């Protein structure tokens, strides 16, 4: 397995809008495209309490490329994202990493 961590840093006060978008729109579209999430987290203590961190689980880089491209180019996603940002930008920055578990990791 390959795990992808993605950290979305929101503009001040916009984290609730991002959480709502994931809960009501994004996750349904991920289901449509076969994207598997492995967890979502907000920051209790850390650099910013305006962050959303989540993990995605992939079988391979090829699977990730195929499914992520299909999702990000889906007209339904493009329209929904634009609608949720009609009252302003939500996300300031996005950081991501692709991770491979070690031989001794509890998560494989």
What does this structure look like?
There is one protein chain. The chain has 108 residues and is an alpha+beta fold. It has one domain (2-99): 2-Layer Sandwich (Alpha-Beta Plaits), CATH 3.30.70. The chain is 38% helix and 31% strand. It is built from three helices and four strands. Strands 2-3-1-4 form a four-stranded antiparallel β-sheet. Helix 1 packs antiparallel against helix 3 (75-84). The longest helix is centred in the N-terminal third of the chain and has 19 residues, at 15-33. It is globular, with a radius of gyration of 15 Å. The termini are close together. The model has no long low-confidence stretch (mean pLDDT 97). This is NIPSNAP family protein.
Strand content: 25-35%
CATH architecture: 2-Layer Sandwich
As a percent range, the share of helical residues equals: 25-40%
Any idea what the radius of gyration is? 15 Å
